[in-house]
Amino acid sequence: MNETLRFPAEWETQSGVLIAWPNADTDWAERLAEVEETYIALVSAITRFQPVLICVADDDIETYAEMRLRSNRVEMDRVRFVTAAYDDTWLRDSGPITLKRADGSFQLLDFRFTGWGGKFEASLDDQLVGVLDQAQVFNNAQVRSIPFALEGGAIDTDGAGTLLTTWNCLHERHPDRDRASLSADMAAWMQQDRVLWLDHGYLEGDDTDAHIDTLARFASVDSIVYQNCDDPQDSHYAELQAMGAELAALRTSDGQPYRLFPLPWAEPVLDEGRRLAASYANFLIINGAVLMPAYGDVADNAARDVLAQAFPDREIVQVPCRSLIWQNGSLHCITMQLPAGLLKN
């Protein structure tokens, strides 16, 4: 790992969180009022702890979003808006992956965003990092464009040189590449010493081809929180049990087993017969807190308790996210943390 350039872990101090406001030109149009309530709750939760930068498609949407947030008594001193065109609001996958130098400057990795392998239109989202850079919302940052399809939700780092990802997703995006060459390239681009791969784990209703942020997440350099399934009658049981076994076999960089925190399994959520991906692993770590998706399920509080064990020094805040899984993602998927010093005041 290059000591002068580092990929910070999500739990390190942040300057803010980046999101994009849903509007009638995004895939949320059919249930826009419902999903707006989730975004209001999310912004309200974030601004208790730190700033939020909200992308808006135009001035009218900014005016409307500000009105909705003010009427819900959100702390507007911690809210900023930036005008940027976008296809949809999954900024975990289209936003910048930020590396930080020892001198406090930043490198924004701008990978290709292809709409999860060409499933959806993504030409505007693919330009978002450059648009934000041109809007001068970042401090002392340079964009590095990398002609390789990779979404932020497909990777997780411990901030100390270990990257966690899934073979299913990366192989789907790059079927002609082998694991060794993918590991070498990703380690070089993101300044990692090693890449850990999971071969198991999936969620019905997930169209990302098994993003790691729906399955397993670092909670520290020696601990991992993961989505468990303890119902033998559920279609996910065998696959998630196999993933749990894989995680148990992984070792930290100093050769020790990880401390594992299995998350409870929510009851199936169906939308017109379609199973939705209600994962508790899709949480967001911010300054002093962990924001967790809540689905109105009896397992919500049990998931909160697991996260409180994994993050004993942070407040666990539930954000209602049932509306998000209708479009196959959840809380972490719509956010991108910005490391300390990156966001201009």
UniProtKB/TrEMBL annotation:
Task: Name the InterPro entries for this protein.
Answer: Peptidyl-Arg-deiminase_porph (IPR007466)
What UniProt keywords are attached to this protein's entry?
Hydrolase
Question: What SUPFAM superfamilies would the database entry show?
Answer: Pentein
Sections of the chain in a coiled coil:
none
An MF annotation (GO) of this entry: agmatine deiminase activity
Protein origin, superkingdom: Bacteria
The biological process GO terms on file are: putrescine biosynthetic process
What is this protein called in UniProt? Agmatine deiminase
